[in-house]
Protein 1
Amino acid sequence: MAFERFTSDARAAVVGAREQAHTLGHHTVESEHLLLALASRPEFDALGLHHDELANALAQEEERSLAAVGLAVGELELAVAARAPRKLQFATSAKLALQRALAIALARGDRRLDAGHVLLGVLAAQHGRVPRVLRIAGIDAEELRTQL
Amino acid sequence: MFAAPPTIPDDPADALAAVGALRRLSDRVEDAAVERAVLDGWSWVEVAEALGVTRQAVHKKHARRLHAAGISKGAR
């Protein structure tokens, strides 16, 4: 990935995604963590992308997906003192989002890849957790993309 | 007479999302269970055998975080 083309905002989103994954106790960095990191930015909050709302939707998505196979573990309390080490790997969904962001920036003729491009890359996903979480949060990804 | 047995969701998106949720749940349960075992004095060899994986696999996955938290004292 051409990280030298990333603006400091885009880099902050990448670093923030890793923090989000770590906080949630996840073992990999996924596109939903990029979404949460981006939703912490005021300019995207102004577009209706609120971090806490999305974090809540993410938890709901998990609960519904487990319930769909007969598991009700929403309240399962797993006390873990030792979280995963800080250096979590970026998994396929996050890599795809960044690849799409880069493709979008190139297609627009933009020289740098900024946080808006990263968000567009995240929102472009048709499958996986991001579209499911956005649906639960009542956010229209298509409409949001037109504002970026 | 009997309720239909549970099955996977009809919508492939829901069924595949369930797989992801189960993997994350499995990771969380494993983290908590390995931490508990190590706190109880289990060796990496014992934890590995109980999980059905190699000692190297369990060490690679958990040693660093448990060591960082002061729970494990390195390789045993």
Protein 2
Amino acid sequence: MLSSTADNLFWAARYAERAGNVARGIGVASRMAAVSARLGDEVEEWRALLTATGGDGGFYRKYEAPTEEATIHWLVFDPDNHSGIIPCFEAARRNGRAVRTALTVDMWEALNDSWNHLRQLTPEAVEGEALPDFLSWVRDRVTLFNGASHDTMLRTEAWRFVHLGMMLERADNTARLLDVRHQLFAQSDDTVADYVQLQAVLRSVSAVRSYQWIYRDRLSAKRVAELLLLRPELPRSLAACHGQVSKTLEAIAEGQGGRRGECHRIAGLLAAELRYGRIEEILDEGLHEFLTRTIARTAELGAAIEEFYIKH
Amino acid sequence: MAQSKIAFDEMRAEDGVRAAYAEIERWLRATPRELLDRKRREAELLFRRIGITFAVYGEGGDPERLIPFDIIPRIIARSEWDRLAVGLRQRVLALNAFLADVYGKQEIIKAGKIPAALVLENEGYRAEMVGITPPGGVFTQIAGIDMVRTGPDEFFVLEDNCRTPSGVSYMLENREAMLRLFPRLCARHKIAPVGRYPEELLTTLKAVAPARAGDDPTVVILTPGPYNSAYYEHCFLADEMGVEVVEGNDLFVQDQVVYMRTTAGPKRVDVVYRRIDDEFLDPEVFRPDSLVGVPGLMGAYRAGNVTLANAPGAGIADDKAIYPYVPEMVRFYLGEEPLLANVPTFLCERDEDRKYVLSNLDKLVVKLAKGSGGYGMLIGPHATKEMRAEFHARILAKPHDYIAQPTLALSTCPTVADQGIAPRHVDLRPFVLSGKEVRIVPGGLTRVALKEGSLVVNSSQGGGTKDTWVLEDEGPDVPMAQSQVQAAR
């Protein structure tokens, strides 16, 4: 496959996944803000979300404080925020359009219809009571795109690069969401506020029910961390995502007669560490330290993939 | 052009509805306006969803626009098409022979059939091509011949397009749209299918690959990128043929061999169907500031390691000043009389022609010999005295920049207009493929001037498109149609 095609597919999938993750993030933050408004620190929630989405530097250059209004505008509309929902869809579509021939019609329509809708979006459509509907629409659209690729793409290299982008982005997202609330996992007292926060973490990866299915017990910080980091059953856990990343890279290598490089080594290492890691050791090291390391390693992996397959 | 003359209506002859249109006429009478409007909206939605747009950047407004699609098809009967097809084949054979000649032995010049300066000093002539014989001797593998009709048996070639003619994706997508919108109307006609075009194109491109490429040459489409107005078409054709669409950056040349960058390393390329202009192909040979080309591409081409379709320099054959000589080419190379007529053309650089043009400016259309897209024209009958005076001066100052033609009454087809169904002027661009043999898919792109009375069909100036139906017979069998029409009138 053309290197530039692989690049476009990889990024189309990454940006689509990112848009969905941002919508999840906003949904949880606005729910939490509604709860903590009574406690008087709802701004904290928006601040945390800005950190998780990575672009907070850009935000503070343009806006004074992370109010709900400013944060949502930044995360949905602002063209300066490359991780905003509309810029993400635009980038996903731009990448998809550049490789129209490599996408299936269903995938293209999922992106194109979304973009046609979003470019007519008014600020009122994401305000107040309308917000939850908008967010679930975004998640639906991303699910549609992911489902369309899953259902309609030939299982060739094109599909593997799409899957790779999706999984790498998802791994990165889960790590960031968890990292924002890492303090929660350092202490052991069991307050009501902690409970609400743990629930928010689970909700942001659609795992409230999954937790109950696996542990059948009260929420505990340690188990939530284990679920999101190490449990391969949860499709958004780091272990599951990095397992898929490594498996996909291996499949690409097999398809090319065993051609491998640095990216395969990093991916294998990351996957193994998560596959065989213990939550006690991770919490002993410090969750923040572990996640910082993993996020950096994921970025390194992205660069190595590009080095090996795209810019040779 | 000439509103003074009455345009030929392709649906209604003086003695009633023409046979090929009998069913369409009946359908139009039976279909309520609301339904046509609904179908029109559906069509627009369809095109928007599939993303069939042409890109207009830097003008403000929507950068991805739709070319308006008119839902009433344009019909051509089998016998009419057969005559056209034979003529198109002949014309393109002659154009290719001309190209091989002017970059080879130049016999047509030596024979005095065409002035040497007109060819050799023409901007479209590429001295870099002298001495190169592409595989099969074919220079213009994909030609689009613009035809207009003025009467039941009068077809004229308005213009040849030998460089990178576009529009074929509309021919294909318009048919898809019609089949989706009006399956029953389609079924009542025996419409010659156009869907094989991509297959025919691929066969043609493979047939002109360098000999060493073997049975399964690697073909790519070279596009300037998403900002090009025809980008959708480049992707569409690549998709339909199952080949890669590449930009300049995806290709590189090493030791006079062209490769594309793939995830599995470099892959050799044999045929480049290029949709970028000559000047941008190779910054080492043509414009050094080209960012969309491939350095070294011409070297690889000259070494015979890759085929470029169409060949650089093919534009000399479709130059407006060369156009009047095409009938002569047919006689010179094929020893046949031309089957397709040219529009009579006056070259202002010829003394006799210029004299005639200057004293008949009120009857003629004056065009820039280098212009395209309907810009820089004088439409004599519609022009003011001042405009004619201005062109008079311009022609005297630079006679070889101008050509003139009589105003033609382009035929009309029924078209959905704001007030109802109304006749609108149309042209036709069939596509002619030349590889080992000449292939023509029955049909082409019909462009329609949507504004009442307008003769400008260019999409940049308010033109739309129609599906073009070449019937497998002379028309649908509709008993009583004629008498019903008479009664309805």
